[in-house]
Design goal:
Strand order of the largest sheet: 6-5-4-3-2-9-8-7
Distance between the termini: 21 Å
Number of strands: 28
Helix content: 10-25%
Amino acid sequence: MVLASHTTTQHLAAQQPAAQQPAAQQPAAQPAATQPAATQPPTESPDENASRMAWWREAKFGMFVHWGVYSVVGGQYKGQELPNSAEWMMARGKIPIAEYEQYAKQFNPVDFDADQFVGLAKQAGMKYLVITAKHHDGFAMFDSKATNYNVVDFSPFGRDIMKELAEACQKQGIKFGFYYSQAQDWHHPGGFGNGWDKTIKRVSSDQYVSEKAVPEVRQLLTEYGPIGIFWWDTPRAMSEEAFNSLHSLTKLQPDVLTNDRLGEDFPGDYKTFERNIPRQAPQGKDWEVCMPISGSWGYKKSDTNFKSTRTLIRNLADIASKGGNYLLNVSPTGKGTLLPQAVERLQRIGQWMQTNGESIYGTTAGPIGKPDWGRCTAKATADGTALYLHVFDWPQDGKLVVRGLENEVRSARLFDGGQVLSTRSVEDGVLVSLPADPPDADDSVIKLVVSGTPEVRSLLPTPGQDGVLELFADQAFIHNNEGSRDAGLREHDGIPHVGYWLDDQAWVEWEIEIREPGVYRVSAVMSVQESETEFRVSVNDSQLSASVPSTGSYGRYAKRDLGSIRVREPGRKSVRVIPTPGSWQPMNLRQLTLKREGESAVD
């Protein structure tokens, strides 16, 4: 179906709006409040910024550590499981301050060894370590001079954990950084977040900042040696003076890097995504993904949901292929050690990095997008470019195609074992001939060196080896009618969708290439607020009609099966989602997926 000639077309594939990070997912719960405009930090030249960021861009892989009082009972309150991660135990259990302090008096991690702990991070191939100096419960894991509610004065352990880690990192060549909860503090009467303890005699947040946060941040930046990263979290609506007083302290260490969670007027040096890897990298911004190795950030007895080594290695490759850093979180127990599951995974990652680290450290985003066989990272050489092909799905026919690549290939070899591989130019790009079996079951890396800067011609999306083609909102052409409110690209939870789709004459389109004709099952990730909506999905002259009931609200997304379409011929195709006039109700559309089922006919 083609709309009338006055239809206008918006191409939204080229630009993805910057994702909005939830204020408190990491302990995540409440969105950040709007805050007053703050004094902007002085700008630095691009060369100065590049110099300051150089080590972080080289490192690519770091260790995040959530550790505190809650580890004494593994996040359980009176033997009961609480929702969310363990470090939220005090809030989720609505534990009064006086009662929670009793856990602090039991915190005695007698098996903690800073040298061994940092050594494990180094063994895993991690280049920096960031740890919770103070989380939202207000307990300082260092010898705070601002309060005696700290690990030295208040717990039987009596040792400055941050000091020991700082010294161990310095000895072993690991950059050291602090996480600090600057706004939420459930122990101080002026801190944000504690709405359950009615014994608190409230004071202003400015008083909290001046009495506790500022002195502690100053101490952390002056008494613990070189600090590579200061990692803020969960911004709240503090005064301009409070924001500026905290931010100005980072000048005490001019080379320190900060993330984007002090406040909305302080973008920091890099953007942080939490738990989830963005499908596309944010434009013109350094970024990282922080993610727990299991389900909880802090140690939780019931949490056995450890990610597999394969997932962790592929996450690292995926993030590096888009130009980001991976900050992988671990959770020490109340005794000060990691669970065996975490240790085993870190050691296995380290073994992989011993062989393949060159394909991660100092790399930039790959130029070939998201190939169906894996990922690609890149690194400039003296006379060309090294492309590191991270092969997740080893081709059974031994033929790996780097689609769209037009450069001359100078060499190709496997990292693991060093076997030289033959290559040749084909219509789709460059074909690399592979041995029958992959050298690594999780991620086999090929170093492909090409002449000059990579030249990659634009190629249409096509189903992968598994027959699956995912089409996302920010890849779509959105066709709007003049005179009606335009449907456009919006976001929920940092994920793009086609929204404000009010006009039943507006439609969405993707250009694709089908190589294997057959029957394709179609599904969508979408939200519908009204009782039901109806629309059609077409692939050229084949189409299906879909009727989708309400998902509950525009903010509640669900995957819905829409039916099957038969694609009769290979070649370039147009996939369209078109409202059914009279039966259409507005919906938000995040993703359309086609999955090849076989050759059987569709009724």
